[in-house]
Amino acid sequence: MRKNSLYSVLLIIFLFGCSSSNIKEPDSTQLVEPQSEEIEQIVKDPNASDYWDNAVLVWSDEFDGTTLSNENWSFETGDNGWGNNELQNYRPEGNTEVSNGTLKITAKINTDNTIEGEYTSARLNSKKSFKFGRMEIRAKLPEHKGSGTWPALWMLGSNIKTAGWPLCGEIDIMEYVSFKPNKTHFTIHSKANNHTNGTEVTSGAVVLETIEEEFHNFGILWSAEYIKFYVDDIENIQFIFKRPINSTIDNWPFSDNFYFLMNIAVGGNWGGLEGVDPLIFPATMEVDYIRVYQVN
């Protein structure tokens, strides 16, 4: 068959197929020029069922060895309440350990007279930031003993120093408060939707019976059109936040780079709603790995 005839047939098939209202156009289509008489069409559509199967690992920390990677992580420090009236003093040493293939973040009662605050803990920031992809963190939460801890695995917009919070955006991949055992929460914050005015967009409490006893995978599938939150497997979607139709930086700040944070807060406006039981300390969250996959 001559090339012109082949193009004509393909054009008729394409126009006929697009007449159906049930067919959604892909976000982007690249037509590769034919070699000999073959036409190859490459479609990368985040809404396709197999899209994330093609994601490849671009960055990870497996927490092997005995020290935390200075190339991957930095510490935030201080006892300023962190915008939530939290009680811990974050410090760069004494509350983290890398051993037996996991990172341990531990909140403790403060026994150091040279450090302010009733409790100490750690808050880690990744030095690398990312836009879009499959982000997954495998972790086990502190053994449940009572109220007062607030562990989180989350992300903030890399422009936070210039834009401030909440305009920078926040993605809570996993949040847990110990007065709600066996449950986790998935939430996004933006200028239009955030907890300071009660408009955050959240999954609410998602039951996960073994969250304190076993490791689980907490992850997101993040594209230009949505953020999907899952547990253990990418098919096990628990919550979806779709890009608003009339999106602005106020309600969709999720088209820029974000970095990771991992921490255990003590008390605070949410974690301390039912008080802080001193008998629960030390409280340790273990992280097996953090991985970022992207579609090329």
Structural features, described:
The chain has 296 residues and is mainly beta. The chain has 2 domains: 3-43, no CATH class; 52-294, Jelly Rolls. The chain has 3 helices and 20 strands. It has helices spanning 3-17, 160-163, 268-271, and strands at 29-35, 38-43, 56-61, 73-76, 88-90, 96-99, 102-109, 119-121, 123-130, 133-140, 149-157, 170-175, 183-189, 201-202, 206-207, 216-222, 226-231, 237-242, 258-266, 283-294. The strands form 3 sheets. Strands 3, 5, 6, 7, 8, 10, 16, 17, 18 and 20 form a 10-stranded mixed β-sheet that branches. Strands 4, 9, 11, 12, 13, 14, 15 and 19 form an 8-stranded antiparallel β-sheet that branches. Strands 1-2 form a two-stranded antiparallel ribbon. Strand 1 and strand 2 form a beta hairpin. The chain is globular, with a radius of gyration of 23 Å. GO terms for molecular function: hydrolase activity, hydrolyzing O-glycosyl compounds. Residues 1-23 form the signal peptide. Residues 50-296 form the GH16 domain. InterPro entries: Beta-glucanase-like, ConA-like_dom_sf, Glycosyl_Hydrlase_16. It comes from Maribacter aquivivus.
Summarize model confidence as the mean pLDDT: 88
Return Rg in Å.
Answer: 23 Å
Strand content: 35-45%
- Secondary-structure element pattern, one letter each: HEEEEEEEEEEEHEEEEEEEEHE
CATH C-level category of the largest domain: Mainly Beta
Low-confidence stretches: 1-42
Count of helical regions: 3
Task: Please describe the biggest sheet, giving its number of strands, its sense, and whether it closes into a barrel.
Answer: 10 strands, mixed
Protein name: Beta-glucanase, GH16 family
Organism: Maribacter aquivivus
Signal peptide: 1-23
Domain GH16: 50-296
